[in-house]
Design goal:
Layout (H helix, E strand, L loop, with lengths): L2 H10 L22 E3 L6 E3 L3 E2 L8 H10 L4 E3 L8 H9 L8 E6 L4 H15 L4 E6 L5 H8 L5 H10 L3 E7 L9 H18 L4 E5 L7 H12 L3 E5 L8 H4 L1 H9 L6 E2 L6 H9 L11
Parallel strand pairs: 3-4, 4-5, 5-6, 6-7, 7-8, 8-9, 9-10
Antiparallel strand pairs: 1-2
The chain binds NADP nicotinamide-adenine-dinucleotide phosphate.
């Protein structure tokens, strides 16, 4: 069977959601962090999450704890970030706070054996009993996706086994392109195509895609609509254009733009100082006494 037919076949067996439940947001109090339902995970996640890509130093544990104190309840990391430091520091930071945060980590391994090694290490580094969301990291091509889905040796098979054991709650997938890196016009279309096929398989509860003020087109809009139809949670990476758009627009405008799209459930800026955390988090706080921003 051809790859595309195989993927489409899987998608056809999945029942699409037609419900306003998708766009659920908390009725938060004035000053509280606004939370949105992360698709069918039903996790109510803070609209500003923590991007853990730049965590490389033990001193950052304090900064993560500050973010949690201010209302961030979603932290994204990956097995490979900082050669494991990101997960280790997050593990320290959430000690005694585990019930206050959802942890999403990732594996870049495409084969079952490698994925299992990563999952075991991630659990140990994070010092947790369970990973809330395990994401397939940086899936950059249909070939990549097909490998992951392979029923005999693909990574997904092992991730599902760990889910059955109660070590993972949900499974996600992240795209691979980096807008603003000189190649984004080509790569973004590819990322969107791969994420769309991933959604249609019905295997993934969340996707992570790049989205920011200078990256909006019909393809990304269609992808977000597809995610809505399948009740898939959407995490926005690079909301500040990898920091490169801050000078031009300012953090407030950039994050408000991302959050003005209700089909995006959490934006996860990378933050390395307390000042950055305070500024970024403040954009997700309810300032009007209702869920409205
Ligand atoms: N394929 C994938 O799975 C994938 C790929 C890329 C990213 N991600 C995830 O997405 C997260 C975010 O992506 P990103 O960090 O590349 O891009 P980003 O969030 O768009 O930008 C982060 C940059 O913005 C700066 N910044 C943040 N808040 C600021 C503030 N208030 N004032 C001034 N500068 C500020 C940071 O500076 P500092 O350097 O000083 O902190 C950092 O350089 C990553 O951490 C990671 O979790 C996932």
């Amino acid at each position: 069977m051809k790859r595309r037919e195989f993927l489409k076949g899987l998608g056809a067996t999945f029942i699409m959601l037609k419900s306003s439940n998708y766009l659920r947001e908390t009725e938060s109090q004035n000053g509280d962090m606004i939370k949105r339902r992360l698709g069918r995970t039903n996790l109510m996640v803070s609209v500003i999450g923590y991007g853990g890509g730049g965590i490389v130093d033990w001193r950052q544990a304090q900064i993560i704890r500050e973010a949690i104190k201010l209302g961030v309840n979603f932290i994204d990391t990956a097995h490979k970030y900082g050669d494991g430091m990101s997960e280790r520091v997050i593990g320290e930071a959430i000690k005694g706070l585990r019930d206050k945060v959802y942890i999403a980590t990732k594996t870049v391994r495409r084969e079952a054996k490698g994925a299992e090694m990563d999952i075991k290490e991630s659990l140990a580094r994070l010092q947790v009993e369970k990973i809330d969301i395990l994401q397939m990291h940086g899936v950059s091509s249909m070939w990549d996706l097909e490998f992951i889905l392979n029923e005999k040796y693909g990574a997904l098979k092992k991730v599902k086994e760990y889910r059955a054991l109660g070590k993972i709650d949900f499974i996600g997938i992240t795209g691979a392109h980096s807008p603003i890196d000189g190649y984004w016009r080509i790569d973004s279309e590819k990322e969107i195509r791969v994420m769309a096929e991933a959604i249609k398989t019905g295997e993934f509860d969340t996707i992570m895609v790049s989205y920011h003020i200078e990256f909006q087109n019909d393809s990304i809009k269609a992808l977000l609509e597809l995610a809505r139809q399948y009740d898939v949670g959407v995490i926005c990476k690079k909301p500040l254009g990898a920091g490169k758009l801050i000078k031009k627009y300012g953090v407030e405008k950039l994050l408000k733009f991302v959050l003005s799209n209700p089909n995006i459930h959490t934006a996860i800026p990378g933050m390395r100082t307390i000042e950055e955390v305070r500024e970024d988090v403040s954009i997700g706080l309810n300032k009007k006494g209702s869920s409205e921003r």
